[in-house]
Amino acid sequence: MKPGRKTTGTYIYCITEGEPINAEEGLHPFRPVYSLAYEDLLAVVSRVPLAEFGGKALPAHLEDASWLEREVRAHERVIEKVMEGRTVLPMKFCTIFRSEKRVQALLENRQEEFRRGLARLRDKEEWEVKMYFQPVSPAAGTSAGKAGAGLSGKEYLLKKKAEDLAGWEMMNEANRQAQRSFEKLVGLVEEIQLKPVAAHNSPAAAKLILDAVCLLSRPGFKVFCEELEGLGNELAAKGFRFQLTGPWPPYHFASQEQENVGLS
User: Fold this and answer.
1) Cβ pair 264, 102 in contact under 8 A
2) Are residues 136 and 244 in the same domain?
3) Cis (ω within 30 of 0) for the bond into 247?
């Protein structure tokens, strides 16, 4: 190591505001988390060793599944802890600056952007709603196989074609219900984003047909849950169910420009 070369960088978890954050457990028990301030803004940070997080070492670590899982979990844990009492703008995993002065310069240079982002998310939370469809088919199972046992080849093909058409009609109905559910959710949330779902090549198994990330106001959360439960009860007999998870760090609604992964 050359004399005078820095051995640590400053890792940013999120941007927030309020009272300073004193040393807390960060990525590891011996790596405290604290805040750097510019006026009312805070960057929640840790010092990290560049031998592990620096430009040459980091790409190799990002290919190491066990290291990546451990550090991503720690990154999310810190943000979630800060979220318990504050509004946050989460930063991308492994956003690292060479010095604390550069972090404070980031806060100063982008102060208005950060303040707008925090105001937009204040008293709101990110939740994810997934909708699944499991076809309800009383004719499914071994009885259907036995029913086709004495058919001729032509009869079997016609029967199979009719079953396929019925299956695709079920999936069309599932897609219609997903669209209807999405339209209902739109009226209950502050903002909503759809995540892509895989195409369905078979109607036989349970399928994810809707994946929506919702920005919910805390005062409106109870009403949202009641409406979602009612919609689930209405559609349960047709093979639909909903899953609600969160609150999550609001990555989907934190509109600030993200820094590049790695050392800046």
Assistant:
1) yes
2) yes
3) yes
Report in angstroms the alpha-carbon separations of 259 from 12, 90, 93, 129, 183. Answer: 10, 11, 10, 28, 34
- Helix 221-235 to helix 153-186 angle (10° resolution) is 160
Domain range for residue 96? 8-122
Distances from the Cα of 138 to the Cα of 141, 143, 144, angstroms: 8, 10, 9
Question: Residue 253 is encoded by which pair of tokens?
Answer: 């609604």
- Only one residue has tokens 């759809």, namely 194
> Do residues 21 and 83 both lie within one domain?
yes
58 and 114 share one domain: yes
For each of the chain's 264 residues, which pLDDT tens digit applies? 454 467 889 999 999 999 998 876 555 556 789 999 999 999 999 999 988 888 788 988 899 899 999 999 989 999 999 998 899 999 999 999 999 999 999 999 999 999 999 999 999 999 999 999 887 655 444 444 445 556 665 555 554 544 444 455 667 778 888 898 989 899 999 999 999 987 655 555 668 989 999 999 999 999 999 999 999 999 998 889 999 999 999 999 987 566 555 556
Same domain, 103 and 154: no
Indicate whether 109 and 129 sit together in one domain. no
Which of 71, 99, 122 represents a domain boundary (last residue)?
Answer: 122
Residue 143 per-residue DSSP state: H
Q: What confidence score (pLDDT) does residue 37 get?
A: 95
Residue 262 falls within a domain, yes or no? no
